[in-house]
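Protocol step 4 of 5: obtain the predicted structure for the target chain.
Materials: sequence only (see below). No template structures provided, no constraints applied. The aim of this step is simply to have a reference model before the mutagenesis design in step 5. Sequence pasted as it appears in the construct record:
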Amino acid sequence: MDSLVSESSAELANRLSVDTVFSTAVASINKKIEGFSDRVEVKKRQTDEVVVKKDEKLSELLKALIEKQDQLEAVFDQIDRIEGIINKVKETYNAVAENLDSIEKAVSASTTTYSLQSSRRQQQHGVPLQPYFPPPNHVDIFDTNELFPLTEEYILIPETGQQKYIHSFDIRLQ
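Step 4 output (structure tokens):
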């Protein structure tokens, strides 16, 4: 019986020893830590890929926005120039209308006084009276070619690689 007790105690001591119990627990924990480390690495790589893709996409969008901003600035500049042309045309129209009003007033005034004076003068001298019309004020009227000069240039057609000669109008304010 002593041998049975000593075998049992040796087996129990072997199974319940700190090294045996903790070595399996440590091995199990190490396997789980390695699994978690692998998952963390995979997630890190996936996150890095997503960040790189997002950075590339943001870079493309930023380039497109800058290009569109340049195009919009060009359009706004052209709108400003057209607005200036419209203002010049409006000023010219107003000046011509003002001259027309003054000429109409002069014609109206001279024709009402002309009929009275002409009948007296014809009776006295037998010569008809010529009414006086003052000359109109000077108005600068711009030529279309000054506002819209024709420009000639070559452009490259990407599909064919050939150059094409084009005419375009460049809107300018002088």
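Step 4 remarks: The chain has a mean pLDDT of 77. The beta strands are 150-156, 163-169.
Proceed to step 5.
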